[in-house]
Design brief:
binds glutamine, hydrolase, 304 residues, glutaminase activity, Beta-lactamase, EC 3.5.1.2
Length: 304
């Protein structure tokens, strides 16, 4: 199922270099606004243990909301199914940072991938500890997943988001007003901003996603029944209000971030990381989505 993969990746990287409309780099986090929109990288870690890549595959980028996939896995490991009393499992049909639904639904976020839901997940992991201890656990999990110690938090990206994080502060305080925040909002958000500022390159991210392939490739971090559920949530909620269109075009469970990265899983076959900093109107990587659409078609990969 992976023959022709390297050629397909080279072809896609060449096609993406020729694309004129590359989307808009996120500028609400000032530190991200200066990133060159011409960068592009893709990597695939296969179930049989190989790693293929093309483009700027050594360049680090900000994982942002892709980290929500890893924190969800950690929080479920710590708290089990009782986590679902605090957060739902339905697509939101709203922007990732929307607050309107949170009031209508009494402070229980729709899913763990919209910002409000991810803040609750980070709050669950924090659990009364110092933020540095929770962040150490998150980094430990991600380093174990990627089998690389060379994964770090970009402190200036975290500080930049913190300084401009009024929307996330409002979400966290609203959660607190509904009794759905266990730690002081400043501590939970400090942890959340630093978690979002973790950086990887696509090779590291593709390797870090192997535990979601479901074949026992790479380190065994999560049992298969939970892997299936994580993939279900990525398929239905991983691209916010663009999740339906992403499923239609690409047909794979995936999680995006406003740094322009996407982690996509071909269950039983491969983990794919793609990065192009320009975003579409939903805050998902424009060329990253196009590249995944092309790769899925070239390799005949789909969950449907
Ligand atoms: N979609 C994203 O990647 C959003 C993550 C970003 N840190 C935020 O909270 O706004």
């Amino acid at each position: 199922m992976t023959s022709g993969l390297q050629e397909a990746l080279q072809q896609i990287a060449a096609d993406m270099a020729d694309q004129g409309d590359r989307g808009a780099v996120a500028d609400y986090i000032p530190q991200l606004s200066g990133i060159d929109p011409n960068l592009f990288a893709i990597a695939v870690a296969t179930a049989d243990g190989s790693l293929h890549y093309a483009g700027d595959s050594h360049t680090l980028f900000s994982l942002q909301s892709i980290t929500k996939m890893f924190t969800l896995a950690i929080a479920l490991g710590r708290s089990g199914d009782q986590l679902w009393t605090r957060v739902g499992r339905e697509p939101s049909g709203n922007a990732f940072n929307s607050i309107v639904q949170l009031e209508q639904e009494n402070g229980r976020p729709r899913n763990p991938f919209v910002n409000a839901g991810a803040i609750v997940i980070t709050d669950e992991i924090l659990a009364g500890r110092a933020p540095k201890d929770a962040l150490a656990e998150i980094l430990r999990f991600m380093r174990a997943a990627a089998e690389s110690e060379n994964i770090h938090i970009n402190g200036s990206v975290a500080a930049s988001e913190q300084a401009h994080g009024h929307r996330n502060f409002s979400l966290a305080h609203f959660l607190a007003s509904c009794g759905n925040l266990k730690n002081p909002a400043e501590l939970t958000l400090g942890t959340y901003f630093h978690q979002c500022a973790i950086e990887m390159n696509v090779q590291q991210l593709a390797l870090a996603g192997r535990f979601l392939i479901g074949t026992g490739t790479g380190p065994r971090l999560v049992a298969l029944p939970r892997v299936r559920r994580l993939n279900a949530l990525m398929l239905t909620c991983g691209h916010y209000d663009g999740s339906g269109d992403f499923a239609f075009r690409v047909g794979l469970p995936a999680k995006s971030g406003v740094g322009g990265g996407i982690l996509a899983i071909v269950p039983g076959v491969a983990s794919i990381a793609v990065w192009s900093p320009g975003l579409d109107h939903n805050g998902n990587s424009k060329l990253g989505t196009l590249a995944l659409e092309q790769l899925a078609r070239a390799m005949d990969w789909s969950v449907f």
